[in-house]
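A reminder before we start the practical. When you read a complex entry, don't treat the lines as separate problems. The point of joint prediction is that each chain is placed relative to the others, so the output describes one connected object in space. Small molecules and nucleic acid strands, if listed, are placed in the same frame. In the example below there are two entries. Take a minute to note the order of the lines before looking further.
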Amino acid sequence: AQKVTQAQTEISVVEKEDVTLDCVYETRDTTYYLFWYKQPPSGELVFLIRRNSFDEQNEISGRYSWNFQKSTSSFNFTITASQVVDSAVYFCALRNSYGGSEKLVFGKGTKLTVNP
Amino acid sequence: KAGVTQTPRYLIKTRGQQVTLSCSPISGHRSVSWYQQTPGQGLQFLFEYFSETQRNKGNFPGRFSGRQFSNSRSEMNVSTLELGDSALYLCASSLIQSPKNIQYFGAGTRLSVL
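Here is the predicted structure of the whole assembly.
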């Protein structure tokens, strides 16, 4: 069975603080993909990053960075120097490669509020 | 390039009615998936289509159905609406059906059942 857990329901920070969003996943497959999406109040899910299970290299993109650790089944997301525009709900998602489906299993999301 | 377009954006229906939601994928995209988002259950997979064929279906009752047309546009239908069907319905598209694909989402249709 596949499962994604985002233990943090809500996080509130002050602008310019760094914030890390946690994601823990469960899967029996050896090949899988992990995603982060952002959902602003408008409702549309915005793609942020994709990682496959064979690529544990961590990535930095501007103020965003991701830490993927297979040993702990975690795929955490860090925003450095947060801004008010970062306020949104962030979702971590898992997709197995078996069967060729594009089905995503989402965590419950973490609502991030960045206060000025 | 236009994104995924969902219509209508908002819908109000009463129990027992049926509803049809529409999704136009990004131009050139041939794979479409649907998700239901509720405060209690979160984001749940409904079904996915590729080349007019349903490839996978989530754990939803038969009242939920969908289809895909030859131009890749997709519709989903919910019959005999229940209060619990109130949700944000999101459509996502990708180029072809592949597990490594990135799915791009529309802004959703917010359905309220009274």
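Discuss with your neighbour: The two ends of chain A are 41 Å apart (CA to CA). What might explain this?
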